[in-house]
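Incident log, structure service

09:12 report received: a user says their structure output differs between two submissions of the same chain.
09:20 pulled the input from the user's history:
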Amino acid sequence: MSSDFETYEQDFAVLTAEITGRIGKVPKLVGDEKKQMVANVEKQLEEARELLEQMELEVREIPPQSRGMYSSRMRSYKQEMGKLEADFKRSRIAYSDEVRNELLGDDGNSSENQRAHLLDNTERLERSSRRLEAGYQIAVETEQIGQEMLENLSHDREKIQRARERLRETDANLGKSSRILTGMLRR
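09:34 re-ran on a clean worker, output below:
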């Protein structure tokens, strides 16, 4: 059983070496050659995934006492596969940038346009920053004014409560005086 696994390992090693070489060539090619190379790499990556699946099935068939060594090999192969896919993705992004530039007619003279565009964006950002700072200042001032108003209202409330208390005391005193006068009148 391990001989099948080792055969798959050898096939995987050869295949990943070919894929690595082709991924390195992708950014250097142009036109149809590049498209063909990308398609070939995609096919080979699919083959490598299938080989990994076969290897996993073989590992499951191996007795548990010797499975650990093969499991660690599988983890390293999966990591290698992930690295290959990431490299291919970066290579394709470079490829798609070139295709986009070809389609849009960017021929390298756009650096001045890009620079002007960046300067415009920088100016807009600076204006926005100034507006944000001014808005922040207004918010701080509004908060201070609001806090002062709350303090004034608090003082006014205390004055009103003291006046109301005095009114109650005066009302109580008037009631007392009224009862005393009424008592005096009856006598």
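09:41 both user submissions now match this output. Likely a transient worker issue. Closing.
09:42 reviewer note: Helices lie at 2-25, 31-61, 64-104, 111-186. The first helix runs from residue 2 to 25.
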